[in-house]
Design brief:
The chain has 697 residues and is an alpha/beta fold. It is built from 29 helices and 19 strands. α18 links the parallel β16 and β17. Bound molecules: 3-hydroxybutanoyl-coenzyme A.
């Protein structure tokens, strides 16, 4: 018998147990083990019913994603589920943890499904650029009808056990956490009551009811908005529709064809890279796994502005109390009101109860003095980008905070070591760079200073997980990973407009690549004053930052969405950017002042100058060890800036574009545009010379 799947009999129940940590994924050994165990159960004349149950933290969480992209090994998952369904002894699946993807498909091929109430089920393949490829698109709608199956399959969202029971996906839900006992009891009932083999493939009432329904076209229309640029969600709809238009076996064949189309799409490769990347970033190079982590039970935040408020919400959401300090009471009142409004909006949408809103608000204390930080475990400073002010703040924190408290800055560009130098405990100082809106964006760029201790590094990575963010540890330099690359893109975007492009042309190239918004729409969202202040800071520090038409916008008070005017204009209550003739004139005027004659700029040039410049900078970031691996950069960009996950992040995408293509463009712009951003990264040159990719590093 296989090591990962076992068969034994308890009374008159044959028990098939999967034990393949961490998540019982359906790798080749599990698939063949399951078939062998089923065969044994069929032959076992004493077994009147069979039970499928899993050891460890979860039921089968899906196909083994690590096998994707490699040659498929027998037995395939469709063979496995069909053999299970064809069993002539009743088969019961007992579900705990999560039954996902191929895991749920295996459960659907069993004749009965029982779960504990904490269990969840789902078909998340779409999040990996796939569709359920082992009968999920054919069997699920037979239980739930078209609408719910389409929702689950096109969003990949999980459904809790009780909802799954109501939807007909499960047959019973029990309290308790002993899944084996729950499964045994149900299987015994099947035997005692003489329940028959019941194959989902033969259930047709919901298929008949929804045949010819326009729900499929409705979903396609909706997906054009919700899943812009994505491949597999549309294939999911085609596959589910096949369940209604074709007999079961032909539907299965159609599902397989569509599954293989998805499997071969570059989006699948990009999304799976993102899936593993998201998990890989938590393993920080050089930071031992067993590094002690400090307890963070209370948090102080300096600044009740957009950032400070958003950061506070992250902690409060997971039950960690925060103390927010500001200089003026009205800033506190305003900040608190915004937090409340955000929570009230969630309550209106049914995401929170009013009681939860009050519980969360009650976890926030406000104060005008740093003395109230005396007992907190972590302080995050979130004031605007001004080194002198930050240093003053950190000197004060050093005086007030207890030993062992972590002193973090949410700076998006400034030198963590210089900030730390204002304290006598630089080992406790670290960057925690949240992304706007901080309560929504999943990235937390944790920045290590040269003296930050391992314990502090490990703690901020653990904090990221605790507040449900994706933490990426990066090194200290201007802008760290994200903003350093963003600012290169920003400079090019501004120059492209100087030279003749319109802001909307630049933005469209970026949204066509899959970004949710372009460079200029993003500046308007973040506030034009943010970039302006950063440029001013750098000018003060003696850097040669050329004048820009965006400075003029800031000086005119066109600060972006918050003033309903920035690079674009905005109608009251709307976030939709509208090109503004006034800005066109301002740009025209700026070109005249600078003696620039505008020229026609192609979309290809915009793409190369805005994105290749980031890749070149990313390569420098790797060379300098600011990012440990290309995937750290990919994850920063996917979760911090909305780089399309289906393209795998900028460095993964660069490998697909071809590093030689990128390098020759970089060299071309070094000659034509110039500037240090176009000096080819030595790493890029080396990789091209060696015929290697970022993925090979
Ligand atoms: N295959 C291979 N490895 C997997 C895996 C899978 N399906 N799911 C999770 N893992 C690995 C993770 O990479 C991680 O490895 P690491 O410890 O080396 O980093 C480990 O299992 C634990 O995963 P998480 O850190 O994500 O643990 P959580 O407890 O937070 O979450 C989970 C568990 C909810 C199961 C989550 O891992 C998850 O969502 N997994 C993906 C599920 C999925 O997409 N299934 C569908 C697969 S496609 C499919 O089935 C195709 C079929 O239709 C033909």
């Amino acid at each position: 018998m296989s090591e990962v799947v076992s068969y034994n009999r308890e009374g008159n129940i044959g028990v098939i147990t999967v034990n393949y940590p961490p998540v019982n994924a359906l790798g080749q050994a599990v698939r063949s083990g399951l078939l062998a165990a089923l065969e044994q159960g069929q032959k076992d004349t004493e077994a009147k019913a069979l039970l499928l149950v899993c050891e460890g933290r979860t039921f089968i969480a899906g196909a083994d994603i690590r096998e994707f992209g490699k040659p498929m090994q027998e037995p395939t998952l469709p063979t496995l589920v069909n053999t299970f369904e064809n069993s002539d002894k009743p088969l019961v699946a007992a579900i705990h943890g999560t039954a996902l993807g191929g895991g749920l498909e295996t459960a659907l091929s069993c004749h009965y499904r029982v779960a504990v109430s904490s269990a969840k089920v789902g078909l998340p393949e779409v999040k990996l650029g796939l569709l359920p490829g082992a009968g999920g698109t054919q069997r699920l709608p037979r239980l739930t009808g078209a609408q719910k199956a389409l929702e689950m399959i096109t969003t990949g969202e999980f459904v809790g056990a009780n909802d799954a029971l109501a939807l007909g996906i499960l047959d019973a839900v029990e309290e308790g956490d002993d899944i084996r006992a729950v499964g045994m009891a149900y299987a015994q009932k099947v035997v005692d009551e003489g329940k028959p083999v019941r194959r989902v493939r033969d259930i047709t009432d919901k298929i008949d009811a929804d045949k010819g329904s326009d729900v499929f076209d409705q979903f396609r229309d909706e997906l054009k908005k919700r899943a812009r640029g994505l491949f597999s969600p549309f294939k999911c709809v085609d596959a589910v529709e096949a369940a209604f238009n074709l007999p079961f076996d032909e539907g299965m064949k159609r599902e397989r064809e569509l599954f293989m189309e998805c499997m071969e799409s570059p989006q699948r490769a990009g999304l799976i890279h993102s899936f593993f990347g998201e998990r890989e970033v938590s393993k920080v190079k050089g930071l031992p796994k067993d590094t002690p982590v400090r307890d963070v039970k209370s948090v102080g935040i300096i600044g009740a502005g957009t950032m400070g408020g958003g950061i506070a919400m992250n902690f409060v959401n997971v039950g960690i109390p925060v103390t927010i300090v500001e200089v003026k009471q009205d800033a506190l009142d305003k900040g608190l009101a915004i937090i409340r409004r955000n929570y009230e909006n969630s309550a209106k949408k049914g995401k929170l109860t009013q009681e939860q809103v009050e519980q969360r608000m009650a976890l926030i204390t406000t104060s005008l003095t740093y003395d109230d930080f005396r007992d907190v475990d972590l302080v995050i400073e979130a004031v605007f980008e001004d080194m002198a002010i930050k240093k003053e703040i950190f000197a004060k924190l050093d005086e007030v905070c207890k030993p062992g408290a972590i002193l973090a800055s949410n700076t998006s560009t400034l030198d963590i070591d210089e900030i730390a130098s204002a304290t006598k405990r630089p080992e406790d100082v670290v960057g925690m760079h949240f992304f706007s809106p901080a309560n929504v964006m999943k990235l937390l760029e944790n920045v290590r200073g040269s003296k930050t201790s391992d314990e502090v590094k490990a703690t901020v990575m653990a904090v990221a997980k605790k507040i449900k963010k994706v933490g990426v540890m990066v090194g200290n330099c201007y802008g760290f990973v994200g903003n350093r690359m963003l600012h290169k893109r920003g400079t090019e975007a501004m120059s492209l407009v100087d030279e003749g492009a319109t802001p909307q042309q630049v933005d469209k190239v970026l949204t066509d690549l899959g970004f949710p918004m372009g460079q200029f729409a993003m500046s308007d969202l973040a506030g034009i004053d943010v970039g302006y202040r950063i440029r001013e800071e750098r000018r003060k520090a003696g850097e040669d930052i050329p004048a820009s038409w965006m400075d003029k916008l800031a000086e005119q008070g066109r600060l972006g969405q918050k003033t309903q005017a920035g690079v674009y204009k905005y109608e009251e209550g709307s976030r939709k950017p509208i090109p503004d003739p006034e800005v066109e004139q301002l740009i025209e005027q700026f070109r005249k002042e600078q003696g620039i004659t505008p020229r026609e700029i192609t979309d290809q040039e915009i793409l190369e100058r805005c994105v290749y410049v980031m890749i070149n900078e990313g390569a420098k970031i790797l060379e300098e060890g600011i990012a440990d691996r290309p995937l750290d950069i990919d994850i920063v960009w996917i979760y911090g800036y909305g780089f399309p996950a289906y393209r795998g992040g900028p460095m993964f995408w660069a490998d697909q574009e071809g590093l030689d293509t990128i390098l020759s463009a970089v060299k071309k712009y070094q000659d034509t545009v110039g500037g240090e951003q176009w000096e080819p990264a030595a790493l890029l040159e080396k990789l091209v010379a060696e015929g290697r990719k970022f993925a090979d590093l």
